[in-house]
Amino acid sequence: MAKITFITSDNEKIEVEGESGSVMELAVENGVEGIDGDCGGVCSCATCHVHVASEDMAKVGPAGEIEQDMLELDDNFNERSRLCCQIEISDDIDGITLNVAH
Amino acid sequence: MSKSVLPDAFQEARNGKGFGTVDDQNDPVTMVLGLKDVRKCAHNWKTFQSGGEEVGRIVVPSEVAIRDTRQIPFEVDPPEHANYRAIVEPWFKRPLEADYQASLKAIIDELIDEVLAKDSVEVVADFSLKLQSRALTLLLNIPYEEAQVWINWGTHVFRSDDTALDADKANILYDYIDQQIDKAIANPGEDLYSVLLDSEVNGRKLSKEEVKGVMILTFAGGRDTVINAVTNSIAYFAESPESLNRLQNEPEITGKAVEELIRYFSPLTHMGRVVTEDTQVCEHAVKANSRISLCWASANRDERVFENANEVVLDRKINPHVGFGFATHNCLGATHARQIMNILLTSLSAKVKNIDILYHQDNIEDWQEFQRKVGFEQLTVSFR
């Protein structure tokens, strides 16, 4: 079980809980504005771009190489960028905050 | 496993110099082949533009000689692009709605039942074109019966059997769209024409010409591409019956299977851009006002990114393909196309046990240096 807080580009704060699957799927199920997940989570569309809160970077970890290549060409890229379809829900990420990039 | 195979026509050039060259009506195109290079160029809309003066030039073969109407938002660059895209984006996301999906499922199920009842079926004309046309009535939100008009046009809107571009054929579409716009002006409804006519950009209503530009894009962009994706899917399942079985037993992989088939098929081989300044691609000089193309089909087989790039790995987990393009101008119809494929795979796996290929004639595109199979001219099968 992990509790995750999304902050949208309109500064809306959405707190959700998930058991398994990807963070993108959790966001889409809960209608988080700005997370579309068009490709269903295979790292092809970059419509699930988030910025991980600085204090949570260690919990979430860095992007893999293929994910990083996608992110670097997306608008609003920074060193805390992740595609949240590539973040698996587990106890390890309980309590993190993600700012939606778009 | 030979008839359904789409060979990678670009491997040697991609791994060597990284680009190819094709002449097109004396306006040559430098084809960018590697995934990273394709993505970089697609992202860099200032240097590689879509919205230049010469309408139709980014299409390969160029449509400069047969089209004056600018396709919108496809042939508009940022920042204006965003205003147009914002108008059409919500409409083109409607395939995510449950009602839309239920209607699409009814269309696809009916068609599968129809072909199951026949001894043999020519898939391109009697399955894929019908499916594409009937599904398009949903995207346009117009009566189902209108699909028959488009089915009667045949498989190619712009092409004849003997020529890549045919102005007379293109005019059938353009004249039809003019008529439909006039009908919507006289009698507004809840169809895409009416919605566009009522839309505003920069504080004014869209002009008739702009509405026509969106409609041409909608018709042209989603015709051959969807027909190829559907036809190639049938060929693939004919030769990989275990995949149909697997989709039935593991429906949770259907979304991944759709992305993988789009990667493997790459229904649109490439799309052009006009170069705005002297620059380089793949360490090759390209001049201002020349053309490049972003070769999605090649990028999607780039073995530096995709393991077993020439195989269909139905549940491929990381699949950063560019089958729907990339960046600013990514495919507007992708949501519709993904739903078509998703429902097609689900219904085929539920209803069809076996597909036998009885006759096939490949559709091979001639890009001079490269001969690429993109699908089939004809594919006759029996469904059981």
Automatic annotation (TrEMBL), chain A:
Cofactor or coenzyme needed: [2Fe-2S] cluster
Gene Ontology BP term (one): P450-containing electron transport chain
Entry's Gene Ontology molecular function annotations: 2 iron, 2 sulfur cluster binding; electron transfer activity; metal ion binding
Keywords carried by this UniProt record: 2Fe-2S, Iron, Iron-sulfur, Metal-binding, Ubiquinone
Residue span, 2Fe-2S ferredoxin-type domain: 2-102
InterPro entries (UniProt xref): 2Fe-2S_ferredoxin-like_sf, 2Fe-2S_ferredoxin-type, Adrenodoxin-like, Beta-grasp_dom_sf
PROSITE patterns: 2FE2S_FER_2 (PS51085)
Family: Belongs to the adrenodoxin/putidaredoxin family.
Descriptive protein name: 2Fe-2S iron-sulfur cluster binding domain-containing protein
Automatic annotation (TrEMBL), chain B:
SUPFAM superfamilies documented for this protein: Cytochrome P450 (SSF48264)
InterPro entries with a match to the protein in the record: Cyt_P450, Cyt_P450_B, Cyt_P450_sf
GO molecular function term, any single one: iron ion binding
One Pfam family from the record: p450
Similarity-based family: Belongs to the cytochrome P450 family.
PANTHER family associated with the record: P450, PUTATIVE (EUROFUNG)-RELATED (PTHR46696:SF6)
Protein name: Cytochrome P450
Taxonomic source organism: Thalassotalea litorea
